[in-house]
Amino acid sequence: MELVPLINHQKEEILLEKETRKAFLAMKEDMEKEGLWINAVSGYRSREEQELIFQEKIEEGGREYAEQYCALPGFSEHETGLAVDVEYDLLFGDLEMRYNPVFARYGFIERYPEGKEMITGYNPESWHLRYVGEEYGKEIQSSGLTLEEFLERREEKPGDFVKEPD
Ligand SMILES: [Zn+2]
Fold it and tell me: What residues pack around ion ligand 1 (CB closer than 5 A)?
């Protein structure tokens, strides 16, 4: 995996896998043309960083709380470089109607949607996008399935989506 930095609105450096970064930047540009605003706030995290975040959540509300709101170290999509946490301005439009179709067009999906908690094992995280590539992004969006359901149907593993960068 090749990680490449992206500078966000706060002038912070966010690391993303190369193809994911490219797709994100193209999407952002397109969104801005449509009058939508988006900003990346978190990308790649090392196992150690995830461990720290997890510990912080435990201190905040105990282990059960931590497990509900934070991926266990070793199980976070952020460790793959394919996940990006974003902020967007819903004043500019509804997430479902306006943002999600653009996410899909560029190969991003809302990974933990509302109402799918039993399947994903996560509380809704409307800010957490996962890069799956354009083809699958559109397919998943139009199917209304979660990644788990989609994969089960296809009998593929999440890692198969994006070819290993060279
Ligand atoms: Zn996230």
Answer: 85, 128
User: Would you tell me the crossing angle of helices 134-143 and 147-154 to the nearest 10 degrees?
Assistant: 110
**pLDDT tens, 82-92?**
999 999 887 76
> What pLDDT, in 10s, does the model give residues 93-145?
787 888 899 999 999 999 999 999 999 988 899 999 999 999 999 999 999 99
Which domain covers residue 108, as residue numbers?
Answer: 3-38+81-160
Domain total in the chain = 2
Give the model's pLDDT for residue 159.
Answer: 57
Residue 125: active-site member: yes
- Ligand 1 center–CA 154 separation, angstroms: 24
Q: Which of 51, 67, 125, 139 is catalytic?
A: 125
Residues 6+ apart with CB under 8 A from 95: 88, 110, 126
| Residue 166 maps to a domain | no
Ligand 1 geometric centre to CA of 131 (Å) = 12
Considering the domain architecture, whether residues 102 and 140 belong to the same structural domain is answered as: yes
